[in-house]
Inverse folding.
């Protein structure tokens, strides 16, 4: 999922998602078709709520 999709799923702002992922050192797992960063949800969930 990209940052926008994660923000919508967890009802958070994109800025909040971005800040929490950076704080937890969660990097993108791969690039999507439009070259957007895609993240592994197994890493994203704990990073957002820990």
């Amino acid at each position: 999922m990209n940052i926008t999709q994660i923000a919508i799923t967890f009802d958070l702002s994109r800025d909040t998602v971005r800040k929490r992922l950076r704080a937890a050192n969660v990097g993108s797992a791969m690039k999507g078709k439009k070259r957007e960063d895609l993240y592994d949800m197994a890493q994203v969930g704990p990073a957002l709520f820990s």
Summary: The beta strands are 30-31, 37-38. The longest strand covers residues 30-31. The chain has a mean pLDDT of 94.
